[in-house]
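Input record (one chain):
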Amino acid sequence: MTSTPAASPTPRPPSIRPATIGDLAAIRAILTAHGNDGPVVIADVVGPYVSYLISRGRTKVAVLDDEIVGFGAAIDTGRSIHLADLFVHPDRLGQGIGNPLLAVVLDGAVQRTTFASEDARALPLYVRAGMQPMWVSLYVQGPSSALPLTPPSFRTASATSEQLAALERDWTGYDRSLDHTFWGTMPDVDAFVVRDGDAVVAFGYARARQAVPIRVVDRLVIHPDGEPVGATLAALARAGRGGPVHLALFGPHPVLRPLLEAGFRVVDRDVFLSSDPAIVDPARLVPNGGML
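The corresponding structure, as predicted from the sequence alone:
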């Protein structure tokens, strides 16, 4: 007579509550366990970012046995509710934490966007949450000294966060003043516009990275009628200050090929998912992964 194996116990559901600034250390420990945080060598980037997401109100933590075992965060971009982060501690994966946490973070969101890592669990989870894979998102870096020459009509100029927020409202109809104020406080930040002749055709931010001496194009928005290659090259030249520079590019962005031909490398990749393919123009946004 064969014995019937005992059924696996049903995982206990976590309790899910709004995150507070007092949860920051526990959240950063989870990020560190996944390789998404670490020593502060140049300047702290992750701490202010997570603190800001908490202040925006759609950041939740999952708790089991009085321990924070996961967290998720989303932000209203005007275009969508963008899932910024969803992490479960590696020791707690497969225990029924991610699904209910995602449901609470995205509760009520109609238009949804996110980036999925290469973790095999991520993309199916987001598809079931109503988002479809759109394009690969490539993390590209290289020496700004090797950039192709920018057409002479393109030049950059310093700006304030208030000016960039006003441009975004004019171009898109979305008021992201709070987010612009935050972007303007990042380490060694440079807020700027790109002009083609007399017309402003793009705006963005560059900043330092947390652990390595590489400048980052933190976000670049190109005018709906702007020429994306020249604008992006001008932004990269400014951001890099003659040294290495890093940015995220949607796969269809036309600047990708000239960058690769100039010796830039793809160092990582994600997949961009969206509930609607019209939410983002991949040639006119260099996204901030956590805040789009």
